[in-house]
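Hey, resending since the last one bounced:
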Amino acid sequence: MVRTLLAALSVIMLMALIQTPVTARETQEPNVLVEEVVFQGNRRFPRESLLYYIQTRKGDPYNPAQLERDLQALWAQGFFSMIRVFSRDGEQGGKVVVFDVQENPIIRDLKFSGLKSMQESDVLQKFRERKVGVSKEEAWDRSKGQNAIRVLKELLEEKGHPDAAVTVDEEALSTAAIALTFMINEGPRVRVLKIEFEGNKVFSSKKLRGAMKLVKQKGLFTVFSSKDVYNPQALDQDLQRVRFFVLTGNGYLDAQFGKPWVEGMTQGGGIPLPLLRKPKKGLRIVVPVEEGKPYRFGKISVSGNTVFTSDQILAVIGLKEGEIIKSTVIQKGVYETLRDLYGSRGYIQMLAIPGDNEQTRRDDPAHPGARLADFSIDIEEGKQFTLSRLEFTGNHITRDKVLRREMFVSEGEIFNQLAWKNSLLRLNQLGLFEEIKEEDGIPRTNDKEGTVEYELKVKEKGRNQIQFTGGASGIGGSFFGIDYSTNNLLGYGESLSVSLAAGNRQKTASFSFTEPYVFDRNISAGFTVFTQSLDFFSGGLAFGGFGSLSGSSTLAFGIPSESLFTQQSSGISIFSSTPFRTLTKKFPKLGQYGRVGLSYSINKTSIKDPPVNRDADNTNDIPVSFRQPNILTSTITPSFFYSSLNSALDPTAGQSFSLTMGLSGGILGGDVKLIQPGMEYKWFRPAPWKFKSIFGKPGTLGFRALATHIGTYGATVFNSNSLSFVGGTPIFSRFFLGGEQDIRGYNIRSISPVVPTEQRLTTTQVEVVLASATDPLNATPLPVKMTGEPGIADAFVRQDLITNFTFTNRLTSQSFIPVGGDTQMLFNFEYRVPIAGPLTAALFLDVGSAFNIRSYRDQQIISNPLKQILNPFGVPITVNADGQIATFEEEQAARLAQGTPPGEIPLGFNDVLVRGFAQTTDNIFLSRGERGWKGLRNYRASTGIEFRFQLPVVNVPFRLIWAYNPNAKTQPSPNQIFLEERSVFRFSIGRTF
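The structure tokens again:
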């Protein structure tokens, strides 16, 4: 053994002696200096730039080992396709070091041949993101080409081409330039026909597939989203998502997915002939699953906490011993709720690390088939930070004070992360900016001093909006209007709006102004001034079948303007509101988002008779169904409003609630006494299910509930002897549902309670004139002869004819009329899905009813006596030679005897018109109408889909609506005033809620 060791030691010493001269020569060459460093073959890179990357310099000792290191340094820059280094003897006894290089060519032309699934610009963008280094005017080397091929294949995999082949064709344009062509064979686009899971017992394959977001099996809508293309990377991400949200999200901590295996398959069949179904070829993906057993919390411990106790933390995050361990609950409780809790105290860098010790996992004796795991939360609280500075950028018009006064955080105070989030919500509610997100706030922390500065970036919306309106409507005729509004007049958040409209039947004008902070106090105030003139045809009360009461609010376009009634209204409203917290500190959440308000309005409304009723000629008067002198309405309305909506328009989260109580008359003065309570609630949330949108974008659930009532109080009820008031309530203030603002599938104001009505007629001073008279109302009447008196040669009539047209309170018609409800209840539901850009789809359900809770006394409308033609529908009556109404038989006999040609009447016969003063009495049986809560049974429902396109500038959407009305009354009936349709298409502008 000793001899062996000595022999080995001798060999080592001998090798050391042999190598010593070589090493000595390398280390002894310090006497040999570098006389010059030369580069040859370089064109684009000057010598001075290349010297930067190497260490060898003129005058340095010559060192071959350093030259090797310099060679590697130059290769690392990627400038050259060939580098060689050598040395030669110099003139002064030293060495001249020569680096012989060949530069990589510049890419002068770049093409992609065979690329069909995407644009070249998309490829180049991905090259830039992945820093591939392949683009025009870049240096080329083959290592970049391999990287580019790999990225291209990944992109093609995402588009459903996992078997794509890519090569690079190089064409030298010169010694320093090259043209590249990527030759691409995409191969067939592979779609996923089936996704199956194998080994799952607790969770169905349908549930597991439903949680997948990026890869879907072929379905009805996947052709639009392209999520049925096979992408291995996307599939892996989806499986991780399924594991988190479904498996570990329900306590199966040991759950694992095996490696998916993919195979081709054919789905469907049939003979591949026209009009017959062809088989579909695609992929079948099978994913092995090991679910394991569910876990429950064992002991839960918290460490590292000093600001809050462990019990406080556990109470906030919602983790309890014995409950199922859910990853989603842990994520929300630890990473969101606990972060907000510490953030509210200024600990914005708090870090919480949840986890369980696998060694503590054990069977659960209380739940066979389940396991227990102890759980710990390690907390690093970090420092408490104070807000040292807050600044805003991007607000070119809006003053800083407008933003600052909405903030719940202040400079110099402990920074409250939760208050910061609420501040962003308040800013979004202003409607002055594009949506402000948390990432728009940029913090800069000073760990040494424990301070944080925040810069908040905002983007202002267009403050001025101009909208032109026009068209024709049943009540307003043809009209044209312009609306102008600004929501940030001088940069202080003031809002101003002006609206003007004029047409052949209406004229309206309004002006409104709101100051959000009066004298820099958190009190908003404003006013609205308006005036309106509306011409309408009353219809309904004329004898002779010229209409019915149901037409009282419609316009007959053929009626001359001299026969139209005119409603004139004008008034002013002033209003003010302040945050709820200014009144009390007891309810902090209500104080943060709630406001109390008070408004007062006074308006005067009158209905003028048509011009023909106001002229000196009383023979052209028409019946009056709407008669109303100047009615003064004085109303005060206290209100409470709460809103946590994240946007003033199209919110996606939050809720709002408003409560109002309008009171008119009494100590306020005015002619009517009304009480008007109202409530409205809105709620919005992102869709809770994982499959949020067929287009991959999140959807929003929203609904509105509305309930309002109007009624009179006191012993006296205003009665205007017309339909302008029903039960003492202005008919235009009563509730009629229907239209795109409430129940979309029904006509506007078509849903209303109806009551029976009857019309009775009284006639006096009845006379008969020849129908051929130029002015029948003023022509000389025919003589009247009693029965038995001898006739005369000229035309005359018998007293019987006069008697037949002389009525006293005679029933002439019975019908039903809509009178509006004193109560309305409305429910709207929507599921909104953004499609692309400003286009959105919304599934909706609208349900509502307008009905009367109160009971009302019958009303009677007595028209003024009018001289008019009493013939039914104005058709002349034929009288015989004896002054009696001629029968058909005797007229025909006279025609035959006299040979009277067609179109003429026989000799001795005359066509006459009956005239007289007619007065109608319309009895409206309000007491017979349905009343009480049973009126809810007469609800209407509408469901369907609408597509919305957000119009630029005006900030309102254009809407295409298809509605299906399941309980529409499509069959005529005595109490069915309006014909309803089962399904309708509509166009509209605006929002439902």
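Residues 1-28, 539-558, 690-695 have pLDDT under 50 and may be disordered.

Sorry for the duplicate.
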